[in-house]
Write a structure and sequence with these properties.
The protein is mainly β and 140 residues long. 12% of the residues lie in helices and 49% in strands. It has one domain: Lipocalin (Beta Barrel), CATH 2.40.128.520. The chain has an 8-stranded antiparallel β-barrel with strand order 1-2-3-4-5-6-7-8. Strand 5 and strand 6 form a beta hairpin. InterPro entries: DUF2147.
Length: 140
């Protein structure tokens, strides 16, 4: 009986941790297919998730977000908060935004996890069905 209870508890914790997105994730360049940066996603005291570029793996065209239109304008790409305000809803994280530092555009964001991969979808805020999904890889 103890083995069954232990197995159930272990499975429950594995399932809960599986749906988490906190950690360091390698982004992949859409055009080249090569690793571009490392983004660290954390949960802040407001209960929402945020992601910041902590390492650049390729040299960006500009060192700052020249095309950003909000408080990130002209801020360094390294250290830039690109994900803001995601909320967990079941097995997905949504309701926040993601910015593309290359073009400065902000999109609605939805993230789901599949093993050691994140499916990160950026979409037009008013048309969430129109968007693009990237796959990010867990940094171990």
């Amino acid at each position: 009986m103890k083995k069954i209870v232990f197995s159930f508890v272990a499975l429950m914790f594995a399932t809960l941790s599986y749906a988490q997105i906190e950690g360091k994730w390698k982004t992949i360049d859409d055009e080249t297919g090569k690793p571009k940066s490392i983004v660290e996603i954390t949960k802040k005291s407001d209960g929402k998730y945020y992601g910041r570029i902590i390492q650049l793996l390729i040299k960006p065209e500009h060192n700052t977000c020249v095309d950003c239109t909000d408080d990130r304008k002209n801020k360094p790409i390294l250290g830039l908060e690109i994900i803001r305000g995601l909320k967990k809803s079941g097995s997905e994280f949504s309701g926040g935004t993601i910015v593309n530092p290359k073009g400065g555009k902000e999109y609605g964001c939805k993230i789901t996890r599949s093993g050691d991969k994140l499916n990160v979808k950026g979409s037009l805020k008013s048309f969430s069905f129109i968007g693009k999904t990237q796959t990010w890889e867990l940094v171990k």
